[in-house]
């Protein structure tokens, strides 16, 4: 049967994966899957601030450059991830802010330089940039701002919400052709009040109206079979972003379940084993049904190398390939969805 990328190409939908540079090149089966199955790649960690500027003023682009070169050799596009995020910041920066040796004005200049330097370094090679990541409050966050931004977010707290429009402007200046995305989780398809979706929607409607160069919204798509998931709501939420004149993308899809043991990653129940590919399929078909949805990316290649078990103990089985790098039912389900168009 055809690869995911070949099937996606036929309907102009890029199918992607996050790539871990520790495996790329050195792990032959891993490398073959990345090359053969996917038409767009995201660096799982290699483009984050702590990776590219571990020491202030000294850039290390090596791992990210390797991925971009690999993508070029394999006719793949690249999603750049991510420029403004509270996590995986270099310790020189967080320490400096904590102990007051970096003032707010300096922090703003440091961020401006970071965005400009990184986007410039990769200019012409990045299809979509995740310019800002995860700055909106979840229902459990204690200090949401009235517009739904997370008042405790490192960047919002230190620089104010105006910094968001600025990072999009700075990124656009450095690479006018890259598509600039806002990326977050639980911003589509969530039952209940759907408050996070609404906040993101309304905030970016305003930025679009103001002419800020934002081009897209990325829903990460980190699902867990123990919670309900509404594929139709997911689709209509993506469509609502699209109706703002924005592109949309599913950027970090994985679907975790409870597993018996973290090495083997076999689901604890048949129901979970069936729900896993089903929820993957719901996300992909929603993307296929929304004209503005341009890419669908899984957050990792195989269950042996995923952030999930380390963060949500007792869960796993989140990806398209199992711990032995064999394709799972989720893989075949997506293949079939792409086949059907
Ligand atoms: O780089 C060190 C390495 O030197 C050390 O030997 C090793 C030992 O633990 O740790 C390495 O750092 C780890 C890094 O991944 C690289 O492997 C960190 O501990 C670990 O926390 C980090 O996890 C990443 C996580 O973001 C951190 O926030 C995951 O790989 C990555 O999948 C995950 O991705 C995020 C997206 O960027 C944003 N959305 C949510 C998603 C899942 O959390």
Automatic annotation (TrEMBL):
Any Pfam family the entry gives: Glyco_hydro_10
Domain of life: Bacteria
Keyword tRNA-binding in record: no
Keyword Signal found: yes
InterPro entries reported for this sequence: GH, GH10, GH10_dom
Enzyme Commission number(s) of this protein: 3.2.1.8
The protein, known as: Beta-xylanase
Catalysed reaction equations from the record: Endohydrolysis of (1->4)-beta-D-xylosidic linkages in xylans
Native source organism of the sequence: Kitasatospora saccharophila
Family affiliation: Belongs to the glycosyl hydrolase 10 (cellulase F) family.
Domain annotation GH10: ranges: 1-337
